[in-house]
Amino acid sequence: MGDQLDSDQGAFAERFEALVETYSEGKLNVRLYPGGILGAEPEMVQNTRLGAQSFALIGVTNLAPFSKEMGMLALPYLIADSEDAVKMTTGTLGEHWNNIAKKQIGVEILGWTYSNFRHLTNSKKPVASLEDLEGLKIRVPQNPIMLATYEAWGANAIAMSWTETFTALQQRVVDGQDNPYIVNDSMKFYEIQSYLTELHYMYSLQPLVVGVRAFNKMSDEDKRIIRRAGREASEFALAYQLQEASKAKKHMQSEGVEVYTLKDESRWESIAKNEVWPLFYESVGGKESVDWVMSQLNTNCMRKCEKREDDNER
Predict the structure, then answer these.
(1) Number of H helices, E strands in the chain
(2) How far apart are CA 133 and CA 137, in angstroms?
(3) Is 3 exposed, middle or buried, given 0-12, 13-18 or 19+ CB atoms closer than 10 A?
(4) In this structure, are residues 126 and 258 in contact, taking their beta carbons and an 8 Å threshold?
(5) What is the pLDDT of residue 61?
(6) For 107-226, where are the E strands, in sequence order?
(7) 3-state SS, one letter per residue, for 176-203
(8) C-alpha to C-alpha distance for 83 and 174, rounded to whole angstroms
(9) 88, CA 20 to 30 Å: which among 35, 73, 254, 285?
(10) What is the pLDDT of residues 43-79, one digit of tens each?
(11) Of residues 90, 48, 40, the one with CA closest to residue 212
C-alpha cells in the first residue's frame, strides 16, 4: 500500500490481515508493506496482475492506466456522499467494476477502503473560491481526468507519483495537493501545508486487488476466506473513516492548519461536468455508460452541492 499503517488504508489492511489469519486458523498469513515500500502504485498493480505480488491496496485512479473504463470513477462530482460511494462499490455497480478489472486488467477487486472526499491543501493562501485557486501548482496523481479538472479550474496541475509528493511539497516544487482528512493528517502535511479547503469533487476509493492468475491457483476454500475478509474489511474501513476523519480534522487544526469551505462550489461542479466530462466520455465507455452509472446511483449531485453551500452560508 502507498500509505502508512496509521491511515485508513492501514486500518483496512490490518483488519484484512487479522480476518484472513483468523478464518484460515493460521494457515494463511498476510504480510503488510506500507508506505510504498514495494514501489509506486502503478508498479504495484503491474506486479499484482503478473503474480509477483499477492495483493495491492491502491487508489482507484491508478487502475485507470490499465483500463480506461475504470477512469470513470475519477469523474469529478460523480459521487456525492458516502452513501453513493457504497452504492458505487457494491451490488450491481460493484460487480460491474469487478468484471472490468478482471477482464481488462487481470485483477479481482476484493474490497474497498472508503477514504471520503479529497480535500485541497496548499502552502500559499486560503482558497475559498474559484478565483483563489488560479495559478496554484497542484500535485495530482498521473490521471488525465484529474489533470484536466484542475486545469479547467485555473490551477497549474502537475502529475506526480505519491511517493514523491511530500518532498515536492516540502521543497515548494508544488504548492498543494488533495487527499482525505485521514491521509492528510497521517502524512503530516500540516508540517508543510498551512491551508485546507473542503472540496467535494472526488470521493477517494482504494480497492484491494489480487491477480486473477494467482488467485485462480488457490483452493476454493482459500478464495472464500479471502473474499469474505475483503468484504468485512471494507465494512470496517467505512466505519473507521466516518469516525476518524473528524479527529484528523481537529488534529490538523490544532497544528495550525486553517480550514476553509467554498463559497461557490456549484461553479466548480458546473465547470467539471460541462467542460471536463465531455472530454472523457469516449475513453470511459461512452456517455451512455456514464448515464447508466448515474441512473444506478439515482442521485443529484448538483442538488446536494447546493445544499452544502446553503448550509455553509447559514
Answers:
(1) 14, 9
(2) 9
(3) buried
(4) yes
(5) 86
(6) 107-117, 119-122, 137-140, 156-159, 176-179, 195-198, 203-211
(7) EEEECHHHHHHCCHHHCCCEEEECCCCE
(8) 33
(9) 35
(10) 999 999 999 999 999 999 889 889 989 999 999 999 9
(11) 48
Answer yes or no: are the C-beta atoms of 116 and 245 closer than 8 Å.
Answer: yes
What distance in Å separates the CA atoms of residue 118 and residue 179, rounded to the nearest whole number? 4
For residue 56, the surrounding DSSP H or E stretch is strand 55-57
Phi-psi category of residue 7: left, alpha or beta, with phi > 0 → left and psi -120 to 50 → alpha = beta
Q: How many other CB atoms sit within 10 Å of the CB of residue 186?
A: 21
Residues of the chain with pLDDT below 70 are 299-314
Buried b (16+ CB within 10 A) or exposed e, 91-130: eebbebbbebbeeebbbbbbbbbbbbbbbbbbbeeebbbb
Which pLDDT does position 181 carry in this prediction? Answer: 95
* Predicted pLDDT of residue 312: 44
Q: What are phi and psi of 31, to 5 degrees?
A: -110, 135
